[in-house]
């Protein structure tokens, strides 16, 4: 009965590719095969010393780091993240979280993780947008990797203006967001996976790491949807 309802729904409201808007086939999910194969996958999950890890050398002592895609302005990855962030297409975050989670599971570098913590957004911004786009990404990772998502452990205490239309230099000099931890004792001795949507300068993730690194015996790894080149 459920399959019949889905077939009727797809007949009148066919699902289309989130990038090219082509009608999807029965076996395609969110993206057509052509667009999926065209996405700039990084393969960072399997490789130590990748570009993400290098970008944090001397800044944050991380265990491992990865990003699913390379990010170029006006590219297809930007289209996906724009829909996730501003068009309430939260299914994109979940889908990409499962995709990256599968890659991370295939690697030996992410075996000791205890929990996933998303970069939070300020309560005023959350109220305006209605959701944190990083949370659904984390939910996909959590399901695939069977690691709990703790979205209440870290919170934003200062609001920054959107970074979307700023240059890389402007982002690196203007981010002054501050974060705090809800309860340090709950994170003691944990290996956490700190997640975000896009790394440009890494300043936001660095700011999140400042209070986290005050926790006794904590370890930090990083995962994001994309890494800016």
State the main characteristics:
globular; 39% helix; 229 residues; alpha/beta; 16% strand; two-stranded antiparallel sheet; 10 helices
Describe this entry's structure for a reader.
- Strand 5, helix 10 (203-212) and strand 6 (219-228) form a beta-alpha-beta unit.
- The protein has helices at 2-12, 33-38, 51-55, 76-86, 90-105, 123-129, 133-145, 168-174, 184-187, 203-212; strands at residues 65-71, 115-118, 154-156, 179-181, 191-199, 219-228.
- Helices cover 39% and strands 16% of the residues.
- It has a four-stranded parallel β-sheet with strand order 1-6-5-2, with helices on both faces. A two-stranded antiparallel ribbon has the order 3-4.
- It has 229 residues and is an alpha/beta fold.
- The relative contact order is 0.16.
- The chain is built from ten helices and six strands.
Query: What is the tally of helical segments?
Result: 10
Helix content: 25-40%
User: What sequence of helices (H) and strands (E) makes up the elements?
Assistant: HHHEHHEHHEHEHEHE
Question: Can you count the beta strands?
Answer: 6
Q: Overall pLDDT, averaged?
A: 89
Rg calc: 18 Å
Shape: globular
Structure class:
alpha/beta
The first-to-last residue Cα distance is: 48 Å
Main β sheet profile: 4 strands, parallel
Strand content: 15-25%
- Strands of the widest sheet, in order across it, are 1-6-5-2
Low-confidence stretches: 168-174
What's a concise summary of this model?
It is built from ten helices and six strands; from the N terminus they run H-H-H-E-H-H-E-H-H-E-H-E-H-E-H-E. With 229 residues, it is α/β, with parallel strands linked by helices. A four-stranded parallel β-sheet has the order 1-6-5-2, sandwiched between helices. Strands 3-4 form a two-stranded antiparallel ribbon.
């Amino acid at each position: 009965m459920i399959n019949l309802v889905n077939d009727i729904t797809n007949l009148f409201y066919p699902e289309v590719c989130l990038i090219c808007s082509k009608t999807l086939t029965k076996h395609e999910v969110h993206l057509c095969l052509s667009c999926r194969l065209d996405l700039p996958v990084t393969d960072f999950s399997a490789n130590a010393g990748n570009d993400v890890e290098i970008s944090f050398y001397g800044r944050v002592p991380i265990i491992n780091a990865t990003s699913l895609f390379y990010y170029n302005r006006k590219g297809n990855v930007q289209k996906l993240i724009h829909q996730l962030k501003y068009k309430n297409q939260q299914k994109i975050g979940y889908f990409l979280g499962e995709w990256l989670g599968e890659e991370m599971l295939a690697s030996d570098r992410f075996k000791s993780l205890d929990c996933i913590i998303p970069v939070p957004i300020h309560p005023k911004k959350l109220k305006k947008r209605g959701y944190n786009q990083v949370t659904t990404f984390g939910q996909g990772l959590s399901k695939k990797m069977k690691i709990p998502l703790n979205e209440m452990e870290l919170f934003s205490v200062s609001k920054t203006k959107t970074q979307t239309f700023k240059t890389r230099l402007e982002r690196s000099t203007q981010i002054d967001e501050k974060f705090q931890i809800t309860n340090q004792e709950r994170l003691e001795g944990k290996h956490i996976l700190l997640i975000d949507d896009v790394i440009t300068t890494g300043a936001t993730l660095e700011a999140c790491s400042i209070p986290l690194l005050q926790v006794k015996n904590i370890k930090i790894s990083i995962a994001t949807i994309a890494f800016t080149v």
